[in-house]
Specification:
- By secondary structure, this protein is α+β, with helices and mostly antiparallel strands.
- Helices cover 32% and strands 17% of the residues.
- The protein contains 5 helices and 5 strands.
- The protein has helices spanning 5-8, 11-18, 98-111, 119-133, 147-156; strands at residues 25-28, 34-37, 60-65, 69-75, 87-92.
- Strands 3-4-5 form a 3-stranded antiparallel β-sheet.
- The N and C termini lie far apart (88 Å).
């Protein structure tokens, strides 16, 4: 049986080593020293151990796909030593209802026992992606109020 990363090095040790310096880390001094992550498998973009996809053996990421779709990426625990084969991509097209996509993502995350703690964050990320793909409604003209409305009504009649 081939060794997995969990057999070689624990995820906690990897996190302690790369926590202060890695390729995905974004530090902002002007915002009070807050740290973000650009990791594609990080659902909240917060630089924390729980959401760090590159550290955990099981991780889920949500990204926009073509034609208002959503792509859900998950890691295979068994292929940890083969990075090219370690991710599974499932694409939900834009024609599906948003609720069906929420349910599918929640089932993939929690029902199969993959990472139930990430279910809420995964559904929130899908919601944000779907909302960003919608066309914004045109803003209606502002109606004149008060004296301007009376003046406008007098000039029309």
């Amino acid at each position: 049986m081939a060794p997995t990363t969990s057999n070689l090095v624990s995820a906690d040790l990897v996190w302690e080593i790369v926590r202060s310096n890695n390729a995905f880390l974004v530090k902002r001094k002007e915002s009070g020293g807050i740290q973000f992550s650009r990791d594609p498998l990080n659902l909240t973009n917060k630089h924390t151990r729980k959401y760090a996809g590159f550290v955990n053996d099981k991780a889920i990421g949500v990204q926009p796909a073509e034609k208002n779709g959503v792509k859900v990426i998950s890691k295979k625990e068994s292929a940890a030593q083969k990075p090219a084969k370690s991710s599974i991509e499932v694409t939900h097209n834009g024609g599906q209802s948003t609720r069906k996509i929420y349910k599918a993502v929640a089932n993939q995350t929690a029902k199969s026992g993959y990472r139930p703690d990430l279910r809420e964050a995964a559904v929130a990320r899908v919601s944000a992606v779907r909302k960003s793909q919608k066309e914004p409604k045109p803003t209606p003209e502002k109606k004149p109020r008060g004296a301007k409305a009376k003046k406008a009504a007098a000039t029309e009649s």
